[in-house]
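Annotated sample (chain length 397).
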Amino acid sequence: MTRAAGAFPTPVERRPRLWNDVRARGLLAQLLFAAIVLVLGVVAVLDLRANMAARGVPTDFAFLGQPAGFDVNQTLIAYGAGSTYGRAFLVGLLNTLLASAVGLVLATVLGFFIGFARLSDNWIVARGALAYVELARNTPLLLQLLFWYNAVLKPLPSPRESLALPFGAFLNNRGLFAPAPVFEPGAGLVGAACVLALALFFALRAVPPRRLAAPWRMAAHGAACAFALVLPLAAFVAADAPVGFDRPRLVGFNFAGGMRLTPEFVALTLGLGLYTAAFIAEVVRAGIEAVPRGQREAAEALGLTHAQARRLVVMPQATQLIVPLLTNQYLNLIKNSSLAVFIGYPDLVQVFAGTALNQTGAAVQIIFMTMAVYLAISLLASLAMNLYGRRHAPRER
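Output written by the structure step:
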């Protein structure tokens, strides 16, 4: 005999036991692992503090308020031998940021130029760019820094026999001397006018072209250019020329006045910029060649010139491939700036992780602060490049 439908009892649904739940087991394992790591970290820190205290090594950051007792040959802010270690840390940080920023600009401009040259139809230009890329990429950066410092800048003539450069600049074995801007009362008005002009310029340029007829579009672009030129000039005249230049002049055996870029700074920025430019050039070349050739041919078939096709069709697509690799090269340049210690440039590593560490003995605190600074700079640079890549990402219509 067979039972009728529904005669069998319905099984009662039961929740799986804790050790049979895969999700619960995974969460428990993660919590256990995190607890073990935390305990080991606390034990290591306590043991480190005990060993440091037993040897008389500072265990806090109070040394930052003590006088440093040493000079720095290039500073962007006021600093002397009586300044504190905290002030020395700030001096080294600003010097690192300055060298990295100048190196990034030089590497970007030169890298894009060489990258375009690699794709040139001119045989000499393309092969010359290839030779530069292969030479710069396949020699150590430290060797290039020593070359620029010892073989190029050090043999320059003395100050009395300086090489005269355009715009009142002079180059000798003590550095590059150039006119320095001098701001008088009223310079703030000129700065505000420049900011306002730039804001109006980008606001007018940001108007979508399809919303304006051709004559009005031309008028908007003309007004944007006029604002960018007329407003700062009018403010400059109204404030009675509040911006001047202090030109360097030879006094005795050295130059006085103006601003001085030390040979160490010039060698560092040249080495970083020229070395990284070779890698950026290959990134640009690869990004452009990755765009299908049919895109360029279709643009030229629509009547665009070769330059217009590259600027309006090829480069927007290549940018998405270039930005991630370009970010990596930027981070490498920032971290490679720490090699400045080998040519005597007073960057963060040389000033703080070198001189200050040897004097105070606070190795753990100083190394931690230095690593945290480089980590923060790298993360901020990555964030900026990611935002740029998202902003210029192609949008679906």
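Annotation: The chain has a mean pLDDT of 82.
Annotation: The chain is about 65% helix and 5% strand.
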